[in-house]
Amino acid sequence: MWAVTHGVSVKDYAQARGAALIAAGSAAAHGVLTSIALMDPHFRPQRRPLPPQTLVELLKHPFCVGEAQRAVLDALGFTYGRTFGDRWEFAEFAQQHQPGLDLFTPPEQLRQP
Fold first, then answer.
1. DSSP string covering 50-109, please?
2. Predicted TM-score of the model (pTM)
């Protein structure tokens, strides 16, 4: 979920995660400098979070809890340059600083026709 909300492909995320595990093992066995060289090529993807309204729609969903909610809040935090402890802290921020975001209608897929 983190990779999707932050605009990093799942393949790149998995590759970077694998590189981090290899680098950690290398650091333990061969020293830190070797591990830095192993990690470098895998940390080039730039984060491109989903648009804020799309993230808000995800956050509104009743099944957006736990790790999924944290990933969405982290992506919103990256977008706005701050951290949000929970969805209510984000809602308070959005009402004051981003009044154009639709916080009050049900999530798109749950709206009645």
1. PPHHHHHHHHHSTT--HHHHHHHHHHHHHHHTS--SSHHHHHHHHHHH-TTS--SSPPGG
2. 0.60
**Type of residue numbered 59:** L
CB 48 within 8 A of CB 5: no
Domain ranges of the chain: 2-43, 52-110
The mean pLDDT of 42-67, rounded to a whole number, is: 84
Q: How many CB atoms lie within 10 A of CB 86?
A: 10
Hey, what are 27's tokens? 């650091």
User: What's the mean pLDDT in 34-51?
Assistant: 61
> Are 68 and 6 within 8 A, CB to CB?
no
CA distance 30 to 83: 36
